[in-house]
Amino acid sequence: MSALMLLAVLGGCAVPTCPPRYKPLAPLRDLVGRPVDLPAGSYQVMSGALPAGQFPCSVAVARLRHADWTVPPDTQPSERNEFVLDPFAHKEGVCWAELFDNIASVSEVFPVDSAYVPSQPTDPGQVVRTLSRVHAGLCVILSEGDVTVAESVSSEGDETAMARQVVGAIYETRNKGLLAIAKSELFAYTNESHNGANGSVAEELAAARFRELVHEAMCQLVASSRPGVVQQPSPWSSWPSGPGPMRWPGKR
Known about the structure:
alpha+beta, 8 strands, disordered N terminus, 5 helices
């Protein structure tokens, strides 16, 4: 589907336009540290990456953005552009906190703010390491922002049509392993989609769709999880040996 067809599908008859507050999207490859090929509107669970005994556990959710917005998104990986936390608004945090309420293996979900990651700029790997110290078994790291999809012509002249997208990854914090990646569809901004000071319809649709994809990925991870091996001490390990009166273990 071409970019113009995509705008027609997502925006209906509304005129494509720019977002009320432009925020560039950090590519998924920047969050996982390597090139990835993932179609929009999908997720991928990494085969065999889930450690045994991962569930039940708590889940931390961190939203990051590039520290320098002026660096082009196609910058070579060698030209490092670090990240800073992009804190959730209260409503967004509540949506994440309630996302896994129907998954018993997820004991708690908490959005990450600067109190958890005081040292910034940072990078996704450092965030995962930091959250492992607060006993988060899994960590969702995401970025949401705007993508150029087409050039449009309006009564005021040529404009760059933009769309909203959210990308992210699920990590396990014990070994800092990548478990899953997800990418929402592009949701076009239109002149009919603004939602006042609280954002836009495109932003809300992209965020909601990404949460849906993460929920599906988490269900698949839980379904494929294996119980951990628990080492139980032998009750006979303290049985006395050698001559002497026989006593039950633990009694002297």
